[in-house]
Amino acid sequence: MATGTITWLGDVEHTLAAAGSDGKLALIEISQAPRCAGCVRLEAEVYPDDRVAKLLGDHFVTARLLRSDHPRESERFNIMWTPTLLMLEPDGTERHRVVGFLPVEDFIAQLELGLAKTAFGRGNFAGAQHAFQAIVDRYPSTDAAPEAVYWAGVSGYKPNRERSFLKQAADTLRQTYPQSDWAKKGSVWL
């Protein structure tokens, strides 16, 4: 079934296999539409956006599962609320999770955060650092930005254990996002 230019598959295993053959991640949306207001708003406001459709098409094989029709998958992925979007490696490793509705800019920032976390998880620290920094630069007012600052610092630190990256991240978090949980987490680097 297609929404705009997004093609949704209907099962997890087929989606993971297709992601593996296409060299992409799987994005699994667990929905409870039409009873879920967040699911309905994603469908009406977020998925029709060309930027969202392009990002999904370029990097993900997508599937949509109705939670009530897929209790095993809901249990497998510990789905506690809908919508839940899972960004998974083809082997099923979860790289990022988004729970609840987000407007377009925040949604795109979360997709990009998932891609950056994937680069990090694969050990591509330079690519991850660049991707995290790009999120901060493009989406500074989203909740993804302070998390991206934190992980950009960790990505810079990982290859050579260069602590200056951690301190720089902590300084940025303290100055720009002082009320965020990420500033509290980064405070140990000061």
Describe it for me?
The structure is a single chain. The chain has 190 residues and is α/β, with parallel strands linked by helices. The chain folds into two domains: 1-101, Glutaredoxin, CATH 3.40.30.10; 103-190, Serine Threonine Protein Phosphatase 5, Tetratricopeptide repeat (Alpha Horseshoe). It contains nine helices and six strands. It has helices spanning 12-22, 37-46, 50-59, 71-76, 104-121, 125-138, 144-157, 164-176, 181-186; strands at 2-3, 6-9, 25-31, 60-66, 84-88, 94-99. Strands 1-2-4-3-5-6 form a six-stranded mixed sheet. Helix 3 (50-59) runs parallel beside helix 5 (104-121), helix 6 packs antiparallel against helix 7 (144-157) and helix 7 (144-157) packs antiparallel against helix 8. The relative contact order is 0.11. The model has no long low-confidence stretch (mean pLDDT 96).
